[in-house]
Amino acid sequence: MKFPVFDLHCDTALALLGEDLNQAGSLRANDGQVDLDRAGTLGGYAQCFACFTSPLMEAENHISPTVMFEREIATIQREIDRNKDRIALCYTPEEVKANQKKGLMSAILTIEGPAGFGFDPGLLESLFLAGFRISTLGWNEQNPLIGSHLTGGGLTDLGKAYVQNAQALGMLVDVSHCSDEGFWDIVKITGAPIIASHSNSRAVWNHSRNVTDDMFRAIRETGGVVGINEYAAFLGENATLDTVCDHILHFMELDPEGKHIALGGDLDGCSQLPQSFTGVDSYQSLAERLLERGLTEQNVMDIYWNNALGVMSTALRDNKID
């Protein structure tokens, strides 16, 4: 069986800009980890394309986060337009499902780090209308909203306003990259499902970017999901497909029906992938290994497709905007 893939996070927008951050790479076919030719081998494909910005890029890359944000948005919009015979921008889960029936792939815009618009909660409505459906509160820095898994530091008053504004719109709040303290601050105030779009199990591999069992349970209780990250550094030493399965199966112990686990490969943001996983087309091999490890086809279908669609549907259904 060929499974469809709904992936909650990739860094392809940034990757297509190249080393000088000013190139015009092709989404149809490239040397990275995500392209439409390889995704076309799957049983369907919906990809959340992150537009990544951080205050750190000004010093490291000599480019303002605002310019970077604009370039990444333009890159994804250009590539969707160039490949409209194969992929379309989606605003709702219903559009994703309709695209799959038509044989089209789906693109969803997401925010990884709000530095590109000055961490301003007041700008979220305009971004929502433009199609953004998920947002982290930062990356690896401490910023005006929250501390990161590297810096520590909790949710600020501005961060609370950001969470509340995003959730009122129907935009999912993504806790990947948050500090532990910030994570629990978000849990205290959340009024909607929260997700960790690209994080693994800290019990399986003790990395600060992964979620603890208690964090997973808290995400589960909100109705959210954790998206499995394919970056080898977050999986374990000498990671293989079985290592990825180990993280999923551990989460299944905490969520026996498998309704709160999804995919968030971090593809094109990974310098090293697990053995035998080379890019988006490798999701089929992972599915086959999960079946061999005892998951049912329904389990895999939920993790690969249904759970991400479901949490996005819930967020949009519960929004408070007329």
How many E-type strands? Answer: 9
Measured between the Cα atoms of the first and last residue, the distance is 41 Å
* SSE string: EHHEHHEHEHEHEHEHEHEHH
Name the structural class: alpha/beta
How can the largest sheet be summarized? 7 strands, parallel
Helicity level = 25-40%
Radius of gyration: 18 Å
Strand content: 5-15%
Number of helices: 12
Q: Tell me, rounded to a whole number, the average pLDDT.
A: 97
Quick synopsis:
The protein is built from twelve helices and nine strands.
Describe this structure in words.
The protein is an alpha/beta fold and 322 residues long. 39% of the residues lie in helices and 13% in strands. The strands form 2 sheets. Strands 1, 2, 3, 4, 5, 6 and 7 form a 7-stranded parallel sheet that branches. The protein has a two-stranded parallel ribbon with strand order 8-9. The longest helix is centred in the last third of the chain and has 21 residues, at 297-317.
List the helices and strands and how they pair.
Layout: E1 5-10, H1 12-15, H2 36-39, E2 45-52, H3 56-61, H4 65-82, E3 87-89, H5 93-102, E4 105-112, H6 124-130, E5 132-136, H7 157-169, E6 172-174, H8 180-189, E7 194-195, H9 213-222, E8 226-228, H10 241-254, E9 261-263, H11 283-292, H12 297-317
Parallel strand pairs: 1-2, 2-4, 3-4, 4-5, 5-6, 6-7, 8-9
